[in-house]
């Protein structure tokens, strides 16, 4: 499927800095233009303008440089949705450093692994982040600089003080489109999460898919929102940065997702465009006739990605909200390569869409040939592609395994119908998809096995009507420990607080032993089948 289409041509400049592109064009042309609308817990809204994003990111870039952060260094960003996230990212990009977004749901173990593996030199965070970093600092010898949005604490410097003491101008590094800019950790079927390293061009590679799924070009009064953490590719690259590049403001809200609050937010702020993962849309469905209860007339488009939406929810959005979902597909390594285009009437219930112009996507058989109509195969994307990652951080073999010739293999199984629409079939490996999060079982199993009562553990995805799958763990206890609901709760809490609130096993089954291969590997497939 070559969707480059007649007349499509990528326009990737020879020199390009994504931080300058996102903040400075509008920051110079229309400094008072609203960029980020931050909604506090009490509902108050604080607006950050493009002019402020531009000067604050300049100030922070200068301050980071003065504290020894150099081009190529990794700068972690551990913050809830807020203007500071974009300031931190843009500062890193302008400096020629690599921004490393970290999700707020991560516990100390997940953070320790990612910060150590990346050798992050600085972390911009808040008081909650500092509390998680405190017990793991000893394992992070490279982490020399902490900056907190909540003021100085311990050896962490105050972001406000740094900004106040730095110049509003900064000569951004003259980067090329392939120079590293951003690294997002993503889980695989084996081992720990891998850092997918992207060049500055990654944002330009997103633009065609973004425009299609959100029914852009923008209109006057557009306002964008997603509940997805901006630390994920979905929040950062499907929403935040492309919206700002278009000069469209984005709502920042850190509160937990809940249907009534979500509808009230749309009504109050007159949100026009939302990116809602399929699980979020299924949670909204708990309110059957929302247009009778809320004024949702501002909402002109809903986009969705990260897991299969399903025909039922697609139809519910059509009936209940009067909109066709702009469904899309991509991976952190190569995002937004398939999408629907609601504005053009391109979309089909239960399909992730068609290839986005500029990306060559195929459904491949195991022998590498292209599958026929309705024949399942693996989704693959041809390189070069501006949206494609550069490599996995420090993992040349894993990078090599991700490709077969010029095809980047996704591991996702799908079929293409006679009209070219791609329908997701699933995965044939152990990767878990839960609430649009891609979850590797190994990280969970490693964490489970550090619990004093656990001898052996296996994690699988169990089909779930709301979250696509939930994490289920099978646990063999050490001698002296007996299965009980209390122990199951304690083990769940252990993973939730240490590893991550989105990766903990929502179900635990105690077993006397687990199915193993002769070489001692757990056969997760057998556990999945037994479910
Ligand atoms: C290529 C791509 O990247 S595309 C898409 C990428 N993926 C995403 O963007 C992920 C999208 N998913 C989500 O944003 C969420 O899962 C939602 C909105 C669908 C549903 O949210 P929730 O059900 O509240 O929680 P979520 O699954 O994120 O988090 C797990 C736990 O963290 C906790 N939690 C979540 N948000 C918060 C918060 N803001 N504050 C405190 N705790 C929180 C919850 O307690 C939840 O645990 P529980 O259900 O046992 O109580």
Automatic annotation (TrEMBL):
Transmembrane segments: none
Keyword Repeat: no
Keyword annotations of the record: ATP-binding, Ligase, Nucleotide-binding
InterPro entries: AMP-bd_C, AMP-bd_C_sf, AMP-binding_CS, AMP-dep_synth/lig_dom, ANL_N_sf, Mitochondrial_ACSM
SUPFAM superfamilies, per database record: Acetyl-CoA synthetase-like
Origin superkingdom: Bacteria
Domain AMP-dependent synthetase/ligase, first and last residues per copy: 24-393
Domain AMP-binding enzyme C-terminal: 443-521
Protein family: Belongs to the ATP-dependent AMP-binding enzyme family.
PANTHER family on file: ACYL-COA SYNTHETASE MEDIUM CHAIN FAMILY MEMBER 3 (PTHR43605:SF10), ACYL-COENZYME A SYNTHETASE (PTHR43605)
Protein name from the UniProt record: Acetyl-coenzyme A synthetase
Organism: Methylobacterium cerastii
